[in-house]
Structure formats: structure tokens, C-alpha cells
Write a structure and sequence with these properties.
With 346 residues, this protein is of the alpha/beta class. 37% of the residues lie in helices and 28% in strands. It has helices at 44-47, 52-69, 97-111, 145-156, 168-176, 215-226, 230-240, 250-276, 297-305, 325-329, 336-342; strands spanning 11-15, 19-26, 32-41, 75-80, 85-93, 119-128, 135-144, 161-167, 185-190, 195-201, 204-211, 284-288, 308-311, 318-319. Helix 5 packs across helix 11, helix 6 crosses helix 7 (230-240) and helix 6 packs antiparallel against helix 8.
Length: 346
């Protein structure tokens, strides 16, 4: 899943459930310059479909987006949806590097949900285990060969050269988390269909989850409880959000129980993290994605967990002309994965 050496130019491609996004950066060092970016909305049913006709529509969208963006290179780093990736942190006996790699391969069958022979495995050594000093902590990711090969064939069929596949949530962390952050921090990417939750510490993910609740669930709840159509519910939710003073708090009441489903999953994740890393305390949450702009929502999370909550900015490590600032900040909450893919520099 890693980059080939010698590739000087490439772009990041995020194939999401509501849009496809492209970002190309230039330069080196901690801050790279924005070269090209573009996005195109897609229907979720097409984005999530395995049917040939829908996949052809997706390819057509990708092709026209590449043309529209003006990206000249065929080299691309591609995101893998978190629902397709299994990621876990495991404790393994402290061994020399070559033996550690063999041990991980050997033990992987009992650690990942798909057979090792049918999976692509990737792992990174994180350091000492917080539970057992005779062991080391390893971040292990797996994805089915079938998914990777199918996506590779599709993208190669339109002339792209895939130089890397990377889980969306790991790309997101690269873009959103400030460089040099060592204290535990949660990134919460609340998309249309689901929420990616990642807790990082010392620059590496320690807990990753894909929670099947996103902005669409809030909109459905609003539509049902207020007896209005979903388009109207969406307008109300993104205008009034969790503000109890607006419309007599009707929007707040209509979506609160669904938001609390997500809050309860966040709570479980925090408790799990604290039980494993007893000496470390989560300090803040960075919220991004579709629902991060719902009024009062970040504040609601901050109050629930008594933590600092801030809105993520995908462009935080990217330089761009001053006259693009407003346009870029208006889409910052949805470009984290594409930017993170474009920021790879191995």
C-alpha cells in the first residue's frame, strides 16, 4: 500500500459517497503549495454500487474531474473507504525486525477478519506496549485483495498509474492533525453515510473506527420527527442545528436521539482508549466532515465530554494564494482525505 520511489508528481484521489475530490500539491517540506484541486458531486447509490454500469458512471465522473482540474500527471494516490479496511493495534513479542515481520504474517489469521491469503496486509511499529513491557505495539491494517484489484483495474482502465492505496482515515489524520502533536487527540470525520473516528498519539493512530452514523441519519430523523421532506429537514438542520432557541427547539428535539447514538459510540471509544493508555489523557477533538458545520453541534460534543473541540481545516499545512482563501475554506471540511493523500511524501 505504499508509494513507489522515484515518483515526483502525483495527485490524491478521494472517491467518497457524496463526491469525488482531487488535490495536487507541489514542493517539499512541512508546507506544500496547492497546485490543483477539484470536486464533483456523486449519487451515493452509484458510489457504493458494485454494478458494472454504476462503476462506469463513476469512471466517467473521475475522467471528467481530472480534465476539469487540469491535473497533468497520471500518477495517483487513492483512498480506501474505512468500511473496506480493518485496522487494529495489537501487542506482539519484542523481536528483531525480520522476525517481527514473520510473526505478524503468522499471527495475522487470528487478528484480521479475512483470510491472509486473500488480503493485503500493512503494518507499522508504534513502540512499547502500554500493557506489557515485553511486547511492542503494532498498527495492523488489512483490506481484501478483491477490492484493491477491482479498484486498480478500474483506474488503470482510464490510464491512471496507482502509486499508493491508503485508508481514508490515515490520510485524513495527516491533513488534519497539526505536525508535531504528541498529546492524544481525536479526529471525528462525520460524513454523509458514516463517521470515521481516529485517536492519535505521538503522531500515530492508536484507535480507528468506522461508525455507521452520519449526517444522512440526522436528516432522516429530522424529516420523520418533524413530518417534512428530507430536503427541507437538511435545510433546517444546517441552518438551526442544535440551537434550542430557534424554532422553539424543534430541530434540536427532532435530531437529538440520533446524535446521541453517535455520541454514545464516541464515549465507548474514549473509554476504550483510556483503559489501554491509562497514563494518557485525551485533550481535544477535531471535528470535520459534512456535519461539522451543523450549528452548536461541536459545542454539544465539547460539553458532553468536557473537552476542547475545534473545527478541522484540511488546508492547514498547504500554502495557496490569498485570493483563494474564502473558496478553499468553504470546502475545507470535506477535503481532508484528498489533501492527506496528496501530502504523502515517502
Amino acid at each position: 500500500m505504499s508509494l513507489l520511489s522515484g515518483v515526483s508528481e502525483f495527485f490524491g484521489l478521494d472517491i467518497g459517497t457524496s463526491a469525488i475530490r482531487i488535490v495536487q500539491l507541489r514542493g517539499s517540506g512541512p508546507t506544500k503549495a496547492l497546485h490543483k484541486y477539484a470536486y464533483i458531486p456523486v449519487e451515493a447509490k452509484i458510489a457504493m454500487s458494485d454494478a458494472k454500469i454504476d462503476q462506469q458512471k463513476m469512471l466517467q465522473n473521475i475522467k471528467s474531474l481530472i480534465q476539469q482540474s487540469g491535473v497533468a500527471t497520471h500518477n495517483v494516490a487513492v483512498g480506501i473507504p474505512s468500511q473496506k479496511v480493518f485496522t487494529t493495534v495489537v501487542d506482539i513479542d519484542r523481536l528483531p525486525p525480520a522476525e517481527l515481520a514473520k510473526t505478524i504474517q503468522y499471527q495475522a489469521d487470528s487478528l484480521i477478519p479475512t483470510p491472509v491469503a486473500e488480503s493485503k496486509l500493512d503494518w507499522a511499529l508504534l513502540g512499547d506496549s502500554p500493557k506489557d513491557k515485553t511486547k511492542v505495539e503494532v498498527l495492523l491494517s488489512s483490506v481484501s485483495n478483491e477490492f484493491i484489484e477491482q479498484r486498480l483495474d478500474l483506474l488503470e482502465s482510464i490510464g491512471l498509474n496507482v502509486i499508493a492505496f491508503e485508508p481514508d482515515n490515515l490520510a485524513l489524520v495527516r491533513a488534519i492533525v497539526p505536525a508535531g502533536t504528541t498529546a492524544p487527540l481525536m479526529v471525528l470525520d462525520i460524513g454523509s453515510k458514516s463517521t470515521d473516528l481516529v485517536i492519535t498519539m505521538n503522531g500515530a493512530p492508536r484507535l480507528t473506527r468506522a461508525i455507521p452514523t452520519g449526517a444522512d441519519a440526522f436528516i432522516r430523523a429530522g424529516a420523520q420527527n418533524l413530518n417534512i421532506d428530507e430536503r427541507q429537514a437538511q435545510q433546517f438542520i444546517f441552518k438551526f442545528g442544535l440551537n434550542k432557541d430557534k424554532l422553539e427547539g424543534q430541530i434540536y428535539q427532532a435530531i437529538l436521539s440520533t446524535i446521541d447514538v453517535l455520541v454514545s459510540e464516541i464515549d465507548k471509544s474514549i473509554k476504550f482508549f483510556q483503559s489501554r493508555y491509562t497514563d494518557s489523557k485525551l485533550e481535544r477533538i477535531i471535528v470535520t466532515g459534512a456535519a461539522s458545520s451543523i450549528p452548536e453541534f461541536p459545542l454539544y460534543i465539547a460539553n458532553k465530554f468536557n473537552l476542547n473541540v475545534e473545527i478541522g481545516n484540511a488546508w492547514r499545512n498547504v500554502s495557496f494564494p490569498q485570493n483563494q482563501q474564502n473558496e478553499l475554506l468553504s470546502v475545507a471540511s470535506s477535503f481532508g482525505v484528498a489533501v492527506g493523500l496528496a501530502e504523502r511524501n515517502e
